[in-house]
Amino acid sequence: MKNTISIIIFAICISIFNSSCAQVLSDKQQNYNAGDTLRGSLRAERNYEVLKYHLQVRVNPEKKFISGSNTITFQAAQELPIMQVDLFENMQVDSIIHQGKKLDYRREFNAVFIDLNKKTSASAKDSIQFFYSGNPIVAKNAPWDGGFVWKTDENGDPWIAVAVQGTGASLWYPNKDHQSDEPEEALIEIAVPNDLINVSNGRFIGKQDLGDGYTQWSWKVNSPINNYDIVVNIANYEHFHDTYKDLDLDYYVLPYNLEKAKKEFEEVKLMMDCFYNKMGPYPFEEDGYKLVETPYLGMEHQSAVAYGNNYGYGYLGRDLSGTGIGMNWDYIIIHESGHEWYGNSITAKDIADMWIHESFTSYTEAIYVECRWGKDKSLEYIRGTRKGVRNTAPIIGDYGVNSEGSGDMYFKGANLLNNLRSIYNNDELWWNTLRAYTKTYRHKIIETKTVEDYFNAPIKEDLAPIFDQYLRHSKLPVLQFKMNGNKVLYRWQADVENFKMPVSIFVENKEIRITPTSKWQSLKENIKRKDQIRVNDLKYYVDSEFVN
After folding, report:
1. Assuming Cys at both sites, which of 37, 100, 130, 218 could form a disulfide with 174, CB separation 3.0 to 4.6 Å?
2. According to the model, what pLDDT value does residue 528 have?
């Protein structure tokens, strides 16, 4: 999965030859209801900025029940008489307190509209304490569906976690459940039975025995964090610590997996070497980096990355690229950690633009392969991932209705970035641009146009039609050829009008770069047979054909 495994959401999903990724799984939905609009749009009642969440929650494993409160500190953008806070309708609203008084509210789908009684004036800072309780939705197949996971480990001890990307963090705690706004900090205090540990995001700041069989574990997040990244991880964990440069590396694993984890997690330092070099420093050094063993495959939970890949290479023992290259490294460590840069640090404003999370993060897999085994292997790996691309729906979803786009946002999106690198045709410029992008938008919430403009700026080629074709249309552009005597004509056939994109082709095994448009052009080279021409499909993900 500011993702998502981005369910992984992991999201990862995807069968080895047939893409069907993570929580972001479905192709575009066409029929939306009022609940979708309430969740996905920025109404007047959401015209406030969240400054801080302070969660105080008790988790009862036996009853699969949670109770507690979230104190939401916010700043009103305009006068705010009524505010919308989101909480799934199956959860009970116990009370909402503002300035010492209990507030009235009404519920509509998963939205709670709160009458502030004494309205908050424009630019003023304020807070409410929202008390709630209930049995949160149980995930049937986390991380591909959202909810709590209530399991036991091999020793019979409770093993509990939550994964809610796409479904929404309001599944288990009240919040402003929209990606456009993140608290600047969060205090997460989770009470669990005394023989268990809770691991959440950020830094551990202490524990307190509550004297009733429960211990409260407190964690402080000092960076902006998206709602779906805030988590609980409850088990009888063993903890061990390491460092990379000045970065704290903390690991929480089940006791009987401790030795395997110490060996497997050594890969984290190799990954950090690569990512620091290609993408820039880890973006949450103030909160540290954690891997936490979970009863599901994985998720990119900020500074508490969920890990459930059974301490083995590949993706649950498989190579999603089908090349064999993916069996040389632990997919979940690399992909989910890549989200710390893309998804957690750089976040899409609307979930329709989740490709900003998943395409870049899927590309980090190829980056890691290149660091370890060279560019040729990286290109081979990324080409192999096309087995999982369907090309049946656009990568970008519908705006304002909480709609993710196609699961092709993973591997098709990564191949789009590989196309861009090939169009740049200058690796030094490409890596400099990627590092600068990561630095410029560190801890920022952005839109697709932001990405398009940024990567368009360093080169003379206009990338706008390329982004348009790959993100907003389902089909690949087709490079068409036709014979004209000893000459070959070529052009692009695409959905985007006047589509233009440079591409490398082989003519009798000699690589040349051409810039087809929607108009027929002629190759300078003479050829006699169609099989003397082919696209360099390591560098470009396109279709090609000869026509009459």
Report:
1. 130
2. 80
